[in-house]
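Re: beginner question about structure tokens

> Can someone show what the tokenized structure looks like for a real chain? I only ever see the sequence side.

Sure, here's an example I had lying around. Input first:
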Amino acid sequence: MNLLKKAALFTTLLGITVSLGACSSAGATGKSGQSGKLTVVFLPGDSVKEEGAARAALSKEVAKATGKKVQVQTTTDYNVAIQAISSGKAQIALMGPDSYIQAHQQSKNVQPIVTYTGKSGTLKDAYYHSYIMVPKDKASQYKVNGKYSLKNIKGKKMSFVSNTSTSGYAIPAGAIAKTFNITNKDDLAQSGKFFSKVLFGGSHQGSAVNLLKGDADVAAFDDMDLTQYGKFLNDSNKAGAIFQINKNAPAPFNQVRGKESLAIAAYKVQNEPIAVNNKYVSKKEIKEIVKDLTSKRVTNDRTFFAPTNAKKRGLLPKDGNTQFKAVSDSWYQPTHQILGE
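And the corresponding structure tokens:
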């Protein structure tokens, strides 16, 4: 639910499978308007069953704004979504910051159009958190001079989300590399190097489950993708934050209900964008999509923005005046700089 956000923050949007012939035709005209269809792709964390209504709502807004047929494409692999938007097989994507930057590197036609704000309703607090977590009952093992530290994680079993996830790999791996003066960050992704074993959960939910089931000693995941499955019991902005899974949490947390993890490190991440491939989406269409998504109607729609304690999940968590705001690639310069991309 993939730095200075959530995101990631954004994951799987609406999608249709486009044939090679259709892609070739779209490329020749430079826009997808000729086909009357659009593909919206979502990352794994936003491809889960619980996000079905939110995906449908987003596709409906895109269809309304563009007058085109829109369907949803879900994924189980970050690279699939990145390749889809950068190649033009998908024209719109809800992406994490790192996934967006990778897609932008592959094609400068991939550009962000909106992100979601923080509680203030502005971009000033438009960020979420990436955590390095351990089981709460073992947290004392990770204290150095009375403070939580990364210094005792070497040799442990580690779970990341995906090596293309901003908050589930890029940020925490960068922090670990800096702490231990590791020059080759790729070593952190391989078992038997820095960690005794490395797991990839495939989603933030999957990485958290790896930790809470005991398959991993340490895990990286974000708050945005987890808060609708549980709650923080104290300050979620810093090391020492405790996250508890709800007693009625659905799969994949049904086997770890009530369990608690503790953050030994916490990092701010810029919120993820909704991005487009502007080779296939016209300026007029982008303008109309932004107009719809930043409207009061969408802002007040709980299918898009729902409180974390809501019975039905929204596309994004609602906190105070959370809403969509227009952005450009320049807004993500802090993330470009952190990732060195």
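Each token stands for a local structural state, so reading them left to right follows the chain. DSSP finds nine helices and 17 strands in the chain.
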